[in-house]
Amino acid sequence: MLDVVTLGEAMTLFVPARIGRLRYANHYERSVAGAESNTAIGLAKLGHRVGWLSRVGDDEFGQYILSFLRGEQVDVSRVRLTPDAPTGVFFKERRSLDATRVFYYRAGSAASRLHPHDLDADYLRSARYLHLTGITPALSASCRETTKAAIQIANEAGVPISFDPNLRLKLWSAGEAREAFLEILPHVQLVLTSLDEAALITGLSDPERAAARLLDTGPSTVVIKRGEEGATAADAEGILFAPAMKVSVVETVGAGDAFNAGFLSGRLRGWSLAESLRLGNIMGALATTAPGDIEGLPDWAEVQAYLGGDAPVAR
To answer: Do residues 16 and 28 make contact, with C-beta atoms less than 8 angstroms apart?
Structure first.
């Protein structure tokens, strides 16, 4: 049995060694990034059994991604090599310590060719959670059908689904995204969203009102990630807020994925909503202390040191 199965695109990431425009960058550091794989790695570091399902190109970058994720203890046995499509890549441009732009080269990638027949139904049924994001259905029509098929398999098997809208306006319009999210929400049990995404879906900018409105769409638990302010969560028992942990921020990209890993880890451990929210905040904060999407992710031993302190939670 796996604790979590997730599916989506992982790409090879290139980050310039120096701050400035990409046109002047000559040296890059290479890594792996993708919302779903980031969360998978975060969960694996916390001691969970995690599987990632996708396609990569039958090329050097695809082999690199598979090797990297194996090294992070993520199961990649259901990843398919695609010989006639490349592995996606993207670049980060760091204009300053707190300003980052992202440039994707993922159109026509191997992952964009994900198809429902790529899904191993028994593999999905073996999980305690299926974790999905709104990025995958934005990649292509076949990816959207694959997302729907995975949701159907999980729903029929009673596997709870966590969903992060993870809005990417470089992939589709706000209207298209909202329509797709509203189709997905009635079929998931947990929503992990940002305040901007919640506002897009509900039309409400107040986190408590937006969380309550999202509960009305079907999920039993809603979490609204609010960055340096903390996070708001809502379920049938009410609404609570937990402040963020204060750290020296190096880069915020990937913090939401890390939060997802922490919150899901808490739920998998049978923790309360407040306890899970706190673990999510710890993971999200620590992820911002290093450049790159996953380099700051802590392991369970490191997290325990932070769990010993007091973190006020108000319901």
So the answer is: yes
Residues 75 and 58: their CA atoms lie apart, in Å, by 18
**Are 6 and 36 contacting, i.e. CB atoms less than 8 angstroms apart?**
yes
SS3 103: strand
Dihedral (CA of 24, 88, 77, 124) sign: positive
CB count within 10 Å of CB 130 equals 26
| Whole-model pTM over 0.85 | yes
- The Cα 69–Cα 121 span in angstroms is 22
The catalytic residue among 3, 75, 164, 257 is 257
Q: In what order do the strands lie in the sheet with 28-33?
A: 28-33, 11-16, 89-96, 99-105
pLDDT tens sequence across 81-99: 999 999 999 998 987 656 7
Quote the tokens at residue 208. Answer: 């408590």
Tell me if 283 sits within 8 A of 297, measured CB to CB.
yes
Beta pairing, strands 99-105 & 89-96:
antiparallel
Mean pLDDT of the chain: 93
The phi and psi torsions of 44 (rounded to 5 degrees) equal: -60, -40
Query: Which pLDDT does position 314 carry in this prediction?
Result: 39
Look up residue 304 and give its two tokens.
Answer: 């325990």
Residue 257 annotated in active site: yes
The pLDDT of residue 43 is above 90: yes
297 contacts 42 by C-beta, under 8 angstroms: yes
- Which string of DSSP letters, residue by residue, matches 71-85? HTTEE-TTPEEETTS
CA distance 242 to 266: 14
